[in-house]
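Bench notes, afternoon.
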Amino acid sequence: MTHSYDDLVATFESNLRKLMDDFKSLQEENSLLRERLSNKEQDVELLKAKFSELQKNYDHLRIAKTLALSDEERNRSKQQINKLVREIDKCLALLLND
């Protein structure tokens, strides 16, 4: 009976050591994974900041393009108005000559 009891204690101690080794190994792995997670979270924050900056730049470019189109449209409108004024002047000149 003592031999069986000693075997049980030895097996228990062996299993306990294995559990403690596994626990230590898992703690180290957990620590490493937490560090990697922290690094990835920092990367995500940097990418979010970069995305925000790029989005702001895109919005500025879009506004600038809209303003540029407005200038172009304004020039076209001025040309059309000038053309209409010339036609009216011609019509007035024809009416005055008759």
